[in-house]
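Re: duplicated header lines in exported structure tokens

Our pipeline writes sequence and tokens for each protein into one text file. With two proteins the header for the second block appears twice in some exports. Here is an export where it did not happen, for reference. First protein block:
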Amino acid sequence: MKVQEENMEDERRDEEETTPEQEEEVMKAALAERWQLIGGHTPSSSSSFSSFPFRGGEEDEVSVVIVTAEDESCPSEPFGTAHLSPTNQDAGMEDGGDMKEEEGEVTSPSAHLQQQMKRKLDHGPDGRTFPSGKKHCKGNGPLGPSSLVQATPTTFGDLRLANGHSAQRRRVTSGPPPTGLQDWLHTFQMWSGPERLLALDELIDRCETSQVKHMMQVIEPQFQRDFISLLPKELALYVLTFLPPRDLMQAAQTCRYWRILAEDNLLWREKCREEGISECESSRRRRCGTAVGPWKSAYIRQHRIETNWRQGDSGEPMVLKGHDDHVITCLQFSGDLIVSGSDDNTLKVWSAISGKCLRTLTGHTGGVWCSQMSVATVISGSTDRTLRVWDAESGECVHTLYGHTSTVRCMHLHGNWVVSGSRDTTLRVWDVSTGRCEHVLTGHVAAVRCVQFDGRRVVSGGYDFMVKVWDPDTEVCLHTLQGHTNRVYSLQFDGVFVVSGSLDTSIRVWDAETGNCVHTLTGHQSLTSGMELRDNVLVSGNADSTVRVWDVRTGRCLHTLQGPNKHQSAVTCLQFCRGLVLSSSDDGTVKLWDLRTGAWLRDVVALQSRGSGGVVWRIRASDTRLVCAAGSRNGTEETKLLVLDFDVDDKKTETD
């Protein structure tokens, strides 16, 4: 007992005689050992240790030790860490420190100091473990104390720590460690990397489910890193471009920094571009002075409009009555103007906002069978064998185009040129601004029923079962597309593919350059009366009461829009955009379908006389409005236009 007391006295004397230089050497040794354990290099001679007092309160004073070292693998990037220890060594001794006194064994002062430093390196000032292998960097200079205190959390574990939660993971406390554990761990550390992986594989195979679950709980937090906050802003924004808009909005709720990124205007401009939302729509939102960026505001507005389409939030339709009991044969819609043509020899210009008839265009001496519209310019074709060019704003007839010798049955406007097809078997190319006929295309041997023009080539379909591709400048027929066995009633042309629909029940896809038939689309049972082609997706409406969606590149039918809610009579007209398909029918309804799934969504319009004579002849739609031309063939429904508005309230959009 006396010997033990003498030894303890010697230890206390040695501790009192420890110089600051010795303490620093011990500190360096401890730091070097710790740095090697977490995968770093041994601090070189250029490593620096600096210490300064920091008073956290009236009584508490700690010494902050800053250690910076030059990483040999990346000399230009200094790294460092900091550790806090009480300036009063007695305080460290009074709280127990790492002093061990078991069965008369007492650690030396130097060993105690080294253990204390290692504990602080391992657990930090608040007892938490520093993330293993993480380098704390600050630009190109030494790490300052302020940056250490305000370090941004980079793992979910760090985030929990920032909120005051303990980082100490739950340890198994079922009893003392098994015999031989330390020997097994030592052997494991002696193995090479591949050998360790093999051992882990074998170990996992022998584990029970509860044991594997425990390993997952330990391992998973190590990989849950907020990598976005670690990236440069430009790269973080690039990563976020891969998220769909709905996920972007959820990401904005994660934390403040993610919200800043997710609100970026250029990021939302890209999302608007993907959805086909135009710049003019964004500019409109900017003028409204929305709180969020104009592109995000435009996207949100478009999303709400689509929701209105899908869920039916349009209010009561506006009814525009005119043309008495005559048939509305053609319908155009541009901006806030609606133009309807009828077999009563007139066209009417309506306001889509007020529903008022602004003016009636008179001059034709026969029924109007076709029309085209660009901004405020309207062109009409009639059974009186003429075309007329109108100013919709003033109601004035600007030009009367003479040349055809029979009914003008179809036309297509592109820029300042309009191409007309007639029952006289010819096509004519007109300059709208002068009213002059510049070219005559002859070659069909029966009435021309449909025409398309892309500014470079004219495509026509006729009652002679033929489809022809023309060069309008030379008036030469480039290709005669033969294959249909009955009249051609409908055409689509996107510059690459020509798609023709016929009374022979088939739809044919042609290569516009070679004139070859690429695909024959079969499935319809009657006349294909209307088609829409966009981005290689074709939607066709047929007299068999069905609508089909096709991929023109493969010739495959993607969807047949039918089922218990399908049309009960011939499809008269259709349109599709933004993932939605609208179809009208002789059954007196307009139905809305999901283009991607082929599912029926709802009946947008259902006439009171549906099923007993009510007909929806034509439909035209913009992003926010639907215009329907309706009536009947037996007097059960008066002739009228229905206007449905799916737009959203600007003020509501701004405040949401």
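Second protein block, exported in the same file:
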Amino acid sequence: MEPISKYLTNLKDFEFYNPIYTGPSYIYHFTQPIKIKKLKLASSLDSSTWLSSLLKNCPELEEFNYSPPSGFIDSNLALTFDKPAKIKKLTIDCQDLNRSTLDSILLNCPHLKELDIIFPNEWKPYSDIVLQRCTNLEHLTLHSRYSLPSQEEYNSLKFLSTSSFKNTLISLTLNNLNFCCSANSLHLKDYSNLKFVKLQIPNRGYGKWGSVAPFNEDFWSGYLRSSYLNSDYDGYKLTKL
């Protein structure tokens, strides 16, 4: 990547995709600062070295997407930020990141407004970090696996009752679980600026309606419910009245 950072110094949008395991002989670095504002990394890593070099040499970065392909997972991948970043929008898959890495990233993103995060199976410690560190969050999208420890706490949204972004969050989207019947707005009652909530599950109907989970109206008084279907999800949108 040296020619990129050397000759394309005004590059604003960069995406790196590599579905194959990245061995030591295929490590790339940005060697000098570059003006990238949007960076997407869809690559498996055996080391955080080049990922750290990318972030260090992108001082103007505002949107960062880290989405490693599944299948080559190093659950101990460590990453630290040397200084606070300007990142406002973060999309991140935590399947190969340890907890200290996520904590370091969020701690050094004081301007973060939008977070789209995929939790690993042991979701609770990661969610605790999000709830603590993202003090100015406005838009939050959560993904998780189908079978979780403490699943009822996740499904009911109870874990969100202790967040540090109750006064700033505008929209909340939860994906990938058939949890609609147990999701409860009681745990969101202190979210003063919340406009809407989306509860989504993968569309298994191949374009046909029918996979949306049962819904408990009693848990969502004060919200207007609408259903929708697209190519990826069936879901409910709950708009606060």
